[in-house]
Design goal:
Shape: elongated
Oligomer: single chain
Mean pLDDT: 97
Structural class: mainly beta
Helix content: under 10%
Strand content: over 45%
Low-confidence stretches: none
Largest sheet: 7 strands, mixed
Radius of gyration: 14 Å
Distance between the termini: 40 Å
Number of strands: 11
Length: 120
């Protein structure tokens, strides 16, 4: 049973920072791309940032220069450092990972989400 567990969300004032973490656990053989998505009330889920197993990153235009995605392959963990937060960053943030399990099955996994609220 593979699962992703996020942590690090919370309430912060505009201009502040938060760091999200997501740990993948279970019988994992390998992890390809990992990433963060977010969903604000009344809006569709959108991509925030992704990182490949080799460390190549991509970002949504709205977060470029403010957010940094990184990962620790030894710990099966992905991070999202969020700086200069804005009220429009308020959303539930979801971790995503493409994982091949111990038996060789490949699937796309999601975490349960962590709330980030930025006050003005």
């Amino acid at each position: 049973q593979v699962q992703l567990v996020e942590s690090g969300g919370g309430l912060v004032q505009a201009g502040g920072s938060l760091r999200l973490s997501c740990v993948a656990s279970g019988r994992i053989r390998s992890i390809n791309s990992m990433g963060w998505y977010r969903q604000a009330p009344g809006k569709q889920r959108e991509l925030v940032a992704t990182i490949t197993s080799a460390g190549s990153t991509s970002y949504a235009d709205s977060v470029k220069g403010r957010f940094t995605i990184s990962r620790d392959n030894a710990k099966n963990t992905v991070y999202l450092q969020m700086n200069s937060l804005k009220p429009e960053d308020t959303a539930v943030y979801y971790c995503n990972a493409q994982i091949r399990d111990y038996w060789g099955s490949f699937a796309n996994y999601w975490g349960q989400g962590t709330q980030v609220t930025v006050s003005s």
